[in-house]
Amino acid sequence: MKRAFYHSILVSLLGIALNFSFKILISHLIAKELLALYFTTIDVFTLTLLVLVGFRSSMVVAFSQFQNAQNIINIFRGALLVVILAVWGLVIPFLKHKMGVDIHYWYLVATLISMSLVLYFSNLIAMYRLYNVMNIVALIEPLFLLIWFCIAYFIAQTRGIQPLFIATIMSSLMVAFYTYIMKRRFFPTISFARPKLEAKEIEFIKNSVISTIEFGSGIVLLYLVVFFIMHYYSLDELGDFQVVTKPIFSYMVMLFVFPIFRFVLPELSKLYRDKEIQKIKSLKNWILRFAFIVSGLFIVISLLAGDEIIGILFSQEYAGAALMVKHLSFFFIFLILNAYQVAFIKASGAFMSALLIRLIGIVSIIVLFYSIYTFYSQSIISIIVSLVMSYMIMFGVSYAIERRIMKRLERS
Predict the structure, then answer these.
(1) Domain boundaries, the chain
(2) CA 194 to CA 192: how far, in whole Å?
(3) What is the DSSP code string of 59-108?
(4) How far apart are CA 287 and CA 271, in angstroms?
(5) Which residues are CB-contacts of 301 (< 8 A; sequence separation ≥ 6)?
(6) Which end of the chain is more exposed for a tag (fewer CB within 10 A), N or C?
(7) pLDDT tens profile 109-150
(8) Rounded to an integer, what distance in angstroms lies between the CA atom of residue 171 and that of residue 148?
């Protein structure tokens, strides 16, 4: 698991480089207006399918506890089918007729289905703890996207928005096919059947819904910052955050926080089920060392070279973002540790507690921002301080819940 965790950081870096390469290439070949429509369409599909991402954590925990793949997968298939039909009937007509995405209707349907297949098999390989497959998928997904765009644009000579959708559809289908083959090598295909809705299955569905809301709450927390900056500050400061600070923060989360949920959560679920208390403590100590090293490097780089790096990458126009990044770097350790604690809480089956932590974070950032803005300072840094303090509060709450669960495990 640890080897796969470290490999995922390297793979994520390569994936980011490939994504940048794809975006740089298409920015020179496709009109800006068409790119805006394409990326907005993909964002809309991604956001509507996010409802199914919440199933991943609950599938991992349910499979570790009950080993009942048949019921778990068939319940997930049912939820996936409902979401696909809802998006097909409600979202695609909106994209086609309201947003004016000028491409054949069936391209949009194929995009929805292919992206849904990738999400479906991604959840399955997470549930089965196929760590190496997860890493390979993270790498080949942007690689296939780049290859298929080149095929559609340079070889097939398609133009306009069409090569972008061809690349998305074909790369998603190839990724889905790869994950299906790799999953089948280790675990048999589950037949379609009506799931039995007994107590365990109802608990799984409830946890899936809670996990989805919890995942969405994490997104809301970050976009509250965008809302506050839009409402109380200038476009220049919004540009600093949107163009520089948020991408840097998002990439740090992608590299060092998301792997905790992809790799550590499945491992914790197994260890919690088997009551391997010493191994859980050893895993936590490893995360602590990892968090201190990553956060320490982030602080040193942002303090010593943050202004220069931002000036080179984004130009001096965005120099104001450096101070935001420096403030975030000092508190990034709480983000990593909170991610581990929430993963442990989910591994124990306490999904409602995980949701409560996120909701406390949302309330905290609102209260903190208005308190600082009203009584202390109206600087743009006040919203960054509110964000990091909300993560500190979530860390404190999750630490208390983690300790309570750990003591209960030790007594059992």
Answers:
(1) 2-186, 209-411
(2) 7
(3) HHHHHHHH--HHHHHHHHHHHHHHHHHHIIIIIHHIIIIIS---S-HHHH
(4) 15
(5) 309, 329
(6) C
(7) 999 999 999 999 988 888 887 878 888 888 899 899 999 999
(8) 7
Count of beta carbons in the 10 Å neighbourhood of residue 62 = 27
Q: How many CA atoms lie within 13 A of 273 on its CB side?
A: 15
Whole-angstrom distance, CA of residue 260 vs CA of residue 170: 30
- Token pair 């289908």 is found at 173
Rounded CA gap, 368 and 138, in Å?
Answer: 37
Helix and strand tally (H, E) in the chain?
Answer: 17, 0
Distance in angstroms (rounded) separating the CA atoms of residues 5 and 289: 14
CA separation for the pair 65, 80 (Å, rounded) = 23
Distances (CA, A) of 276 to 88, 113, 272: 45, 40, 6
Candidates 43, 41, 158; CA nearest to 96 is 41
**Tokens 């009551």 correspond to what residue?**
275
Name residues of the chain where pLDDT drops below 70.
Answer: 1, 51, 66-67, 190-199, 201, 242-243, 314-315
User: For position 402, what pLDDT does the model report?
Assistant: 93
Q: What is the dihedral of CA 411, 267, 202, 68, to 10 degrees?
A: -110
225 within 8 A of 383, measured Cβ to Cβ: yes
